[in-house]
Amino acid sequence: MELTDRQKKIIEIVKKEEPVTGEQIAEHLKVTRATLRPDLTVLTMAGFLDARPRVGYFYTGQTTSKMLSDQIEKLKVRDYLSIPAVIKESSSAYDAVCTMFLEDVGTLFVLDDQGLLSGVLSRKDLLRIAIGSRDMNLMPVSVIMTRMPNITYCKKNDLVIDVAELLITREIDSLPVVRKKGEGLEVIGRMTKTNVTKAFVELAKGEIK
Ligand code: ADP
Q1: Minimum CA distance residue for ligand 1 atom 6
Q2: Which domain holds residue 20?
Q3: Mean pLDDT over the full length of the chain
């Protein structure tokens, strides 16, 4: 259910001042009691407010999490993804280190000859090679990357909250955002812990429409 700005304000007032009468709410909002009547009816019927005769309105509390989850459901990957940093399978581990520095990212997505997703390369994958005695110029990324089908990915219409859950449960820092292309997956973006954090900061600041 979509609340209007005034309905949201009414909830805020009731939360702070409960029990509060319709007149008092009207005074706060500088409108007449009659103007507020439809809003109060909607909010009471929807379960946001509890009206007690001769006492006033109370905030039910139960709907806080419902309202929050309604807002969270609006956070979609497509509105928060960033440009992906990619590298070819045939590139060396040394090239990968340079690309990571230049692109200022912690994860690279590895593409095959057709430009489709074949692997993911993280900082630790490269550190593992760096502390071994092997020459990073001679080590192709295809040998050290995490490869398909073990890659966790998401699509642009997925929910940010589902991405957040995957990042936590799989203990990874980012997911490629993909779309199907033939038999493979084309990388169209990336979702990192930072993208998820941005979405939640916007939510907390009430910037979600
Ligand atoms: P870091 O290496 O900086 O800790 P991660 O925690 O993201 O970064 O990576 C840990 C391991 O998980 C690495 O071996 C990496 O290849 C792999 N990995 C990273 N992202 C994904 C992903 N989306 N799907 C599958 N494996 C991943």
Answers
A1: 172
A2: 5-62
A3: 93
